[in-house]
Design a protein that fits this description.
Chain A is an alpha+beta fold and 396 residues long. Chain A is built from 14 helices and seven strands. Chain A has a five-stranded mixed sheet. Chain A has a two-stranded antiparallel sheet with strand order 1-2. In chain A, helix 12 packs parallel to helix 13 (337-352). The longest helix of chain B has 25 residues, at 94-118. The chains are: A alpha+beta (396), B mainly alpha (232).
């Protein structure tokens, strides 16, 4: 059973194309057609040599040989993976037919517990397609002639994107001119709103283009696409621009509050678990209607001796004007007063979402009540007095 | 089989936290928040202003940082007072610092009330500010310098060159001077009492701190011949 496969397969064609990328696939649809290398049903490389005789170039010949080798290798790997999966399922006492990848991961984590910090260094078992990345199919035909017109730039996909951007810019200029001649102005209602989005970062752009990019390349891309999106008629190429953006925030998580349940007295209640801040952990139950009673670990608000913590606890209630409409019960453990009150503040705010309207939720979000505060104490560094403070400098 | 299942459950939980932590992949120095997070607008009036001006619709899609543990929407909260508490703080004992500042505000109220009741005419009574927070704001505003001196080395000689200062620096200097003035006192006088006196005096545009500001301005005036060293 192969549990761990290293990614260092010596292969010149490693940096390869994932052909399912929509933007790029549109850009050069011919690539798909030339994917004859990694497919087993295609004729053997020897046949190819016979068929084309002396016409086939040496580079092409060696490429075909390598592709054939790789196909064989992947085939054996796939078989081994299947066998390993069956073994694992039997060891775990489950049905091998319905054993999913998630089950495999769990089984590996159970059977080979690893104390290693880096997740990449821990044992894993994945289908070979994931472990060995897909290879770039031939970008040239049998005679060695490249399909893509930007092949010799070395980064055809990247330059194709830039090319498309410029094309769009020119088209929009032309369109603007014609509209000006007609005396029309761009529609103010449909201007492109990009405030909630950011451009793809360099890593994900590299992944989508399957080419390594330098910092300068990425900057070029950003300036180009920003220039495109600044144009007055940029909403006409909305789809193209949005391919290279990602939203800044997960809205669903903030706005979808759970429906309150009802207790024996007929009062609606919501319980929020896992309220955390620093090392404090707690849970908060909010009951509606109530009279503003607060109980923390069985005590009232005087559980917190300092005023700042009490203020923090009341912050979401004051903000939503609910301080006399709900009852609050909470349990906290760990940490100090500041951490505990912070944890409860988040828990109360998170639970109150179920009892207020959406506008108020948005206000609470803007007030920073619904964001988890993940900040913690910064560790002390060796060779320093503290996290940032250095030792007093002595000449000798 | 039972412990195994628990373990699987834990694994799943772990995966969930992993997915959450994926948000923070975009590193921003030592900060826990990515660069595009905006600071929270925790005051109700500030939020209403944003909504009125239409800025709020733009912020809908931008995530906010969590409000800090000394920020609330309560009416008793004041940003400048908060900052002042932090400047008064020693060794991170915020609770004590806050207590002292609040005590000094109490003393301001007491002193002002005493003055108020001693006044005989209605006109004099009108002149006395009873709200300690307003007194504090006035005091800080009155102690702000507009220019200060920085040493600049030219030809092996250090010249004290007058340089204009930013509003933030001026505010810091004013609060720092107020605190140092309050600390220069006899041992029998409590800090909060001395601070209250200084604040009231500064609010009336008199006292040691305002004098210090004027002294600095006078020095700047005396050194105006060196002003060109700032750029040459």
């Amino acid at each position: 059973m192969i549990l761990r496969r290293t990614l260092c397969l010596l292969d010149p064609l490693r940096s390869s194309v994932l052909l399912n990328y929509p933007g790029v696939a549109v850009a050069f649809p011919t690539v798909e057609a030339c994917m004859f290398s990694t497919n087993n049903s295609k004729p053997d490389p020897i046949d190819q040599v016979d068929k084309y005789g002396k016409n086939i170039s040496k580079a092409m010949k060696s490429y075909l040989e390598r592709a054939h080798e790789h196909d064989e290798f992947m085939k054996t790997q796939r078989e081994e993976f299947q066998i390993g999966k069956r073994h694992l399922a039997n060891m775990m006492g489950e049905d091998p037919e319905t054993f999913t990848q998630e089950d495999i991961d769990n089984a590996i984590e159970y059977l080979f517990p690893s104390g290693l910090y880096d997740k990449k260094a821990r044992p894993l078992m994945k289908p070979p397609e994931e472990v060995f990345p897909q290879r770039k199919a031939a970008e040239f035909d049998e005679t060695g002639r490249p399909h893509h017109f930007l092949f010799y730039t070395g980064k055809p996909n990247y330059y194709q994107v830039l090319h498309n951007i410029v094309q769009h810019i020119n088209d929009l200029y032309k369109y603007e001119n014609t509209m000006l001649r007609k005396g029309l102005k761009p529609d103010p209602n449909s201007t492109l709103e990009l405030s909630g989005y950011q451009w793809l970062d360099k890593m994900s752009l590299e992944n989508t283009l399957v080419e390594t990019l330098g910092d300068k390349d990425y900057d070029c891309f950003v300036t180009a696409i920003e220039r495109l999106s600044c144009l007055p008629y940029s909403y006409r190429v909305k789809d193209f621009i949005f391919q290279y953006t990602k939203p800044l925030m997960n809205q669903v998580q903030t706005y979808e509050a759970p429906k309150p349940q009802y207790d024996s007295e007929g009062r609606a209640y919501v319980t929020t678990y896992e309220c955390l801040r620093k090392t404090a952990r707690g849970d908060v139950t909010i009951r509606m209607p109530g009279t503003g009673n607060i109980s923390i670990n069985g005590k009232d608000i005087t559980y917190f001796e300092d005023i700042q913590s009490r203020e923090q606890l009341l912050f979401p209630l004051l903000f939503t004007n609910m301080q006399t409409k709900v009852d609050i019960e909470c349990n906290v453990a760990g940490g100090g007063p500041s951490g505990q009150s912070g944890a409860l503040r988040w828990g109360i705010a998170w639970g109150l979402r179920s009892f207020v309207d959406k506008e108020m939720i948005e206000k609470m979000r803007l007030a920073g009540l619904l964001t988890r505060d993940y900040r913690t104490r910064e560790r002390k560094k060796p060779g320093q007095a503290g996290a940032r403070r250095k030792f007093t400098w002595k000449k000798r | 089989m039972e412990p195994m299942k628990i373990l699987f459950g834990k694994c799943k939980l772990f995966q969930k936290t992993l997915r959450l932590s994926g948000i923070f992949l975009q590193q921003n120095g030592m900060s826990q928040y990515p660069t595009y997070y905006i600071p929270p607008v925790y005051k109700k009036d500030a939020q209403e202003e944003l909504i009125k001006s239409g800025e709020a619709t733009k912020l809908v899609h931008i995530p906010t940082r969590a409000a800090l543990s000394d920020q609330t929407s309560s009416l008793a909260h004041d940003d400048l007072v908060n900052l002042f508490i932090n400047y008064c703080m020693k060794d991170g004992l915020k609770q004590i610092a806050r207590q002292i500042v609040e005590q000094s505000f109490q003393s301001i109220k007491k002193i002002q009330l005493e003055k108020y009741h001693k006044c005989e005419s209605e006109e004099d009574k009108q002149k006395i500010e009873l709200n300690p927070r307003v007194v504090f704001h006035k005091a800080v505003e009155n102690c702000k310098p507009v220019i200060h001196l920085t040493p600049i080395k030219r030809g092996g000689v250090r010249y004290q060159v007058p340089v204009p200062i930013t509003d933030k620096k001026a505010q810091f200097l004013s609060m720092k001077w107020l605190i140092t003035a309050a600390r220069e006192k006899e041992k029998t006088v409590r800090f909060h009492l001395q601070l209250a006196r200084e604040l009231i005096e500064a609010a009336n545009n008199s006292g040691r701190v305002v004098k210090r500001k004027q002294e600095l301005h006078r020095q700047c005036e005396a050194n105006r011949a060196y002003a060109h060293y700032r750029w040459s």
